[in-house]
Amino acid sequence: MRSDGKIAGYWVPTEYAGPSHVAYGLIDFPTLASYESYRKKLAGDPEHKRNAEALERSGAIVSMERSFIERIEIKSATT
Known about the structure:
flat, 2 helices, 14% strand, 79 residues, alpha+beta
């Protein structure tokens, strides 16, 4: 990836739990500012523009949502 974001992975619901037309992709950025910088770079990147246009023409994406989530540390309980 041409930014300081790291792809955390891609997920789809199992056939038993959730709609089959949904997929999730998570990209981990160290700060909101680094995400904003990434979006600005994408807006001016000719390769990204070509890829986004081809994806839109394909009809593969019906809608896209963005959410900001925060990683938390889970401490194990000691007995």
